[in-house]
UniProtKB/TrEMBL annotation, chain A:
Assigned keywords, A-Z: ATP-binding, Cell inner membrane, Cell membrane, Membrane, Nucleotide-binding, Sugar transport, Translocase, Transport
Family to which the UniProt record says this protein belongs: Belongs to the ABC transporter superfamily.
Record-level GO BP terms: carbohydrate transport; glycerol-3-phosphate transmembrane transport; glycerophosphodiester transmembrane transport
Protein name (record): Carbohydrate ABC transporter ATP-binding protein, CUT1 family
Keyword Cell inner membrane: yes
TrEMBL record, chain B:
Residue ranges of the TM segments: 9-30, 71-96, 108-128, 156-180, 201-227, 266-287
Protein name as annotated: sn-glycerol-3-phosphate transport system permease protein UgpA
Protein family (similarity comment): Belongs to the binding-protein-dependent transport system permease family.
UniProt source species: Jannaschia pohangensis
Role, per record: Part of the ABC transporter complex UgpBAEC involved in sn-glycerol-3-phosphate (G3P) import. Probably responsible for the translocation of the substrate across the membrane.
SUPFAM superfamilies per record: MetI-like
């Protein structure tokens, strides 16, 4: 159990900088999810904490101690890999006990710890099997078990659920979170799946192109996205963005105009979440529906803003029978709208 | 699910396997049959008549101390060739696998010796160690060591082993290198996080994962040492001194074509066939079981 601190951590491969300085402090026992699209540097960041990649600049500390120069084994961490990285020639028991055996623990104690972990993960019937005789979910558990038995200060997860099917993923998500809660071990969890990030994180780091776009609780990021990227990456379906011009207490988007509660002026980008759309025959905005996706609990309507090329998606509660070509008029609550600078993508605080 | 390809008639499948069958028949079954047949006779030196002796050739061979010595020589030789060709190859592969820059160049250079024909490799080593003009023997002489593989059994054996194994290092290197590349990086990293340092990881993770390759190379190299080293031995020592480097396959040649005892030579071929067959069956039965995970 320990805190993890990143101070302006940078990573360069040759002359290419891939991580441009990430700083954050992770509290003891916190569950942090690093989320971002492929190639954003999230795995590299995690591997720097693990010690599998060198830190080009900045400082990584675990439990208040600088670990930049330490080997992975000396950092007191455990890692769960995307492909599980189990030792294929060893039984489940040997896999889980490998680290302890290297640490020269007495055999009886290794057995006891492995048995405890196996019990916790319901792996007891499989202890003598080889990894290839296990299902994906069981392998995932063995990888977890290998991390748990060593009682590390920090858990590192590198997309551990992306090889599982959807149903198992939801189940393992809860199990991992529950396990981490019970053990109280600080965890860093990398994923590209924003739903995983939303559901598991105490706080999340939204990464894009080597930068931390926003660090905050899932609801903070959802409700007050600091950048256009964070706004669009978190939330499903993705936030709609429209370019408009604000002037004199109203925002004009093409031919339509929305009332504003702020003294914003000039060109802005506005974000409208599909689930925040309020259908209204008198509403100021309109879209031409192209396709409907009935999901049961809600219905997604995909289309374009009337008379414009901007793609727009609306999420309506319940079942809604959409007809292609139909025009849907709607309004939004202006108080909820985030505004972004069209050039930098940074949030513009709309002071009232 | 049925994955086999099925044919309707007999003609097409027959045509498809015909080339392999014909080649095996001409180059393996026919000569093997001939060898078995000839091993039952003693022909006269001019090949004009043959006298049936039953298993006489075999009886003679098995009681011949020279032949039994050749068995031992072959065992020592093939063990050494296998070791000397595999251990350095594995070492080089491990080192090349860790390289980041210039790995391609090293790889290419390390493969070159394999392209050298065994007889040429033999001549190459022979020149280097030649007792009168050899570079290496001259330096050894300067160091006060009198190298003479023409007279010294051990030195002769050492030289043919090195000359035979040298080219094979390249071959084995290729396989080991490919196998090392196939070991998932994350498994190694997991072991590193688990606290295993390089050599510990090598012995407990990498080497076990290489075992299918190692087993394959073991079989292939033993077969190589048994049969394909003829050229090297012929050029360097011709089986000498005092038959110290006469391995079974060389004895087949020297008894048959130099000594003109074709009956004995044929009987030796048959014995060799049985030995290699038995060895292979043994390897597959007892070692292969342990190497799969």
């Amino acid at each position: 159990m320990a805190t993890v601190d990143l101070k302006a951590v940078k990573k360069r491969f040759g002359s290419t900088e891939v991580i441009h300085g990430v700083s954050t402090s992770i509290a003891d026992g916190e569950f942090i999810v690093i989320v971002g699209p492929s190639g954003c540097g999230k795995s590299t960041l995690l591997r720097m904490v693990a010690g599998l990649e060198s830190v080009s600049e900045g400082e990584v500390s675990i439990g208040g101690k600088r670990v930049n120069e330490l080997e992975p084994m000396d950092r007191d961490i455990a890692m769960v890999f995307q492909n599980y990285a189990l030792y294929p020639h060893m039984s489940v028991r040997q896999n889980m006990g490998y680290g302890l055996k290297i640490a020269k623990l007495p055999k009886a104690e290794i057995d006891r710890k492995v048995d405890d972990a196996a019990k916790l993960l319901q792996l007891e019937p499989y202890l003598d099997r080889r990894p290839r005789d296990l299902s994906g979910g069981q392998r995932q558990r063995v990888a977890m078990g290998r991390a748990i038995v060593r009682q590390p200060k920090v858990f590192l997860f590198d997309e551990p659920l992306s090889n599982l099917d959807a149903k198992l993923r939801v189940q393992m998500r809860l199990e991992i979170r529950d396990l981490q809660n019970r053990l109280g071990i600080t965890a860093l969890y990398v994923t590209h799946d924003q739903v995983e990030a939303m559901t598991m994180a105490d706080r999340m780091i939204v990464m894009n192109a080597g930068r931390a776009e926003q660090i905050g609780t899932p609801l903070e990021v959802y409700e007050r996205p600091q950048t256009l990227f964070a706004a669009q990456f978190i939330g499903s379906p993705s936030m709609n963005v429209l370019d408009g011009v604000a002037a004199d207490g109203s925002l004009s988007i093409g031919d339509s105009s929305l009332p504003l509660h702020s003294r914003l002026s000039g060109p802005v980008t506005v974000g409208i979440r599909p689930e925040h759309v309020i259908p209204d025959a008198e509403g100021p905005l309109a879209m031409t529906v192209q396709m409907g996706e009935p999901l049961g609990a809600n219905t997604l309507l995909h289309g374009r803003m009337a008379g414009r090329s901007d793609a727009f998606t609306v999420s309506l509660a319940g079942v809604h029978h959409a007809v292609a070509g139909e025009t849907l008029r709607f309004g939004v609550d202006p108080a909820n709208l985030p505004f972004f600078d069209p050039k930098t993508g940074q949030r513009i605080e709309a002071e009232a | 699910m049925e994955k086999r390809v099925t044919f309707k008639g007999w003609l097409l499948p027959l045509c498809l396997i015909a080339p392999q069958v014909v080649i095996s028949a001409i180059f393996f079954f026919y000569p093997a049959g001939q060898a078995i047949w000839q091993s039952l006779f003693i022909p006269d030196p001019f090949g004009l008549s043959m006298q049936y002796v039953g298993l006489g050739n075999f009886e003679f061979l098995l009681s011949d101390p020279y032949y039994r010595a050749s068995f031992l020589t072959t065992a020592i030789f093939s063990t050494l060739v296998t070791l000397v060709s595999m251990v350095p190859a594995l070492f080089l592969a491990v080192v090349a696998d860790r390289l980041i820059k210039g790995a391609g160049t090293y790889r290419t250079l390390l493969i070159w010796p394999y392209a050298v024909a065994p007889a040429i490799a033999g001549v190459l080593w022979l020149f280097m160690f030649n007792t009168r003009v050899g570079v290496v023997s001259w330096y050894l002489g300067n160091l006060g060591y009198d190298w003479n593989h023409v007279l010294n059994d051990t030195e002769a054996m050492g030289l043919v082993v090195v000359a035979s194994a040298w080219g094979r290092i390249s071959y084995n290197f290729l396989f080991f290198f490919a196998a090392l590349q196939a070991v998932p990086k994350s498994v190694i990293e997991a072991a590193a996080i688990d606290g295993a340092r390089f050599w510990r990881r090598f012995w407990t993770i990498v080497l076990p994962l290489l075992s299918p390759t190692t087993f394959f190379l073991l079989v292939v190299n033993i077969v190589y040492a048994f049969f394909e080293t003829f050229g090297v031995i012929h050029t360097i020592t011709s089986g000498g001194p005092q038959q110290a480097t006469t391995i079974l396959v060389y004895k087949v040649f020297s008894d048959g074509f130099v000594g003109q005892d074709l009956g004995s030579s044929a009987a030796q071929s048959v014995i060799l066939l049985v030995v290699v067959g038995a060895l292979t069956v043994f390897q597959f039965k007892f070692i292969e079981r342990r190497v799969h995970y």
